[in-house]
Design goal:
about 260 residues, mainly beta, SH3 type barrels, Jelly Rolls, 6-stranded mixed β-sheet, 1 helix, 17 strands, about 10% helix, about 40% strand
């Protein structure tokens, strides 16, 4: 074969191969594009934590507070004070005690220059018939009226009720007489109780039973008397006064 034929043959062969390749490429299905590799999202399920073995809670030792000691008892209520209530009082005598003596005796219970009917000196005892708005009507030693504030005066005849009060068994009694008279102190007591009188000054009273009869007449100078009461009721402690009067004080106790 000559050179020219060989070249031609090679050219035809090359064209055939190229055409075959082109046809093959046209007939091959296109390759599917593959998305970039991405790892699928994996949900991480936490691994369960093994439960600790159940343990009993350690008991807390709670110490109970000590039993409260009983509240101290309330202090005993102090005894009630004795009470004295005057049920009757009559003034029959007074004694002159004027800071500017002598004391004027007037014809009426007023102060005027024309109604002076006499004068009396300090220490003079006056017989009184009535009291009126700060004035005393007197009959002796001069009849007329005198200012009560310029005299010493009190109950000449007195009756008084004495109550010891709750929780109390005794009372102190004191007063004074201006001139003659009597003072009676009434107190309630039960049969079998013991009555005790203790003198502080003056004289001790006589004791009268609920029926009015004498239980005890205590001689002057005695400092103490005690006796069992025979009956229940109101007992009377009575003091009497002579013309000059006196002050007294004593303690009465009933158990």
């Amino acid at each position: 074969m000559n050179r020219r034929s060989l070249i031609l043959t090679l050219s035809v062969t090359a064209l055939a191969v190229a055409a075959g390749v082109a046809v093959a490429m046209l007939q091959s299905p296109p390759k599917t594009a593959i998305a970039p590799d991405s790892s699928p999202t994996t949900t991480m399920t936490p691994e369960p934590i093994a439960a600790s073995p159940t343990t009993e809670p350690t008991p807390i030792n709670v110490t109970a507070p000590p039993s409260a000691s009983p509240s101290p008892a309330s202090p005993a209520r102090p005894p009630a004070s004795p009470t004295r209530s005057v049920t009757s009082c009559r003034l029959t005598m007074a004694r002159v005690d004027d800071p500017n003596p002598p004391l004027n005796v007037r014809s009426s219970p007023t102060t005027t220059a024309q109604n002076v009917v006499g004068q009396v000196q300090n220490g003079t005892y006056l017989m009184v018939t009535q009291e009126q708005e700060g004035w005393l009507q007197i009959t002796d030693p001069v009849a007329g009226w005198v200012a009560k504030s310029r005299t010493q005066a009190g109950c000449n005849e007195k009756v008084e009720r004495v109550s010891f009060g709750a929780g109390n068994t005794s009372a102190e009694i004191s007063d004074r007489f201006i001139g003659t008279g009597f003072h009676q102190y009434q107190l309630n007591a039960a049969a079998g109780q013991t009555l005790t009188l203790s003198r502080q000054s003056g004289s001790l009273p006589m004791v009268l039973k609920p029926n009015g009869q004498m239980l005890a007449e205590i001689p002057d100078g005695n400092d103490r008397w005690s006796g069992t009461l025979p009956a229940s009721g109101d007992y009377v402690l009575q003091l009497d006064s002579n013309y000059k009067g006196y002050a007294y004080s004593f303690v009465v106790d009933i158990q």
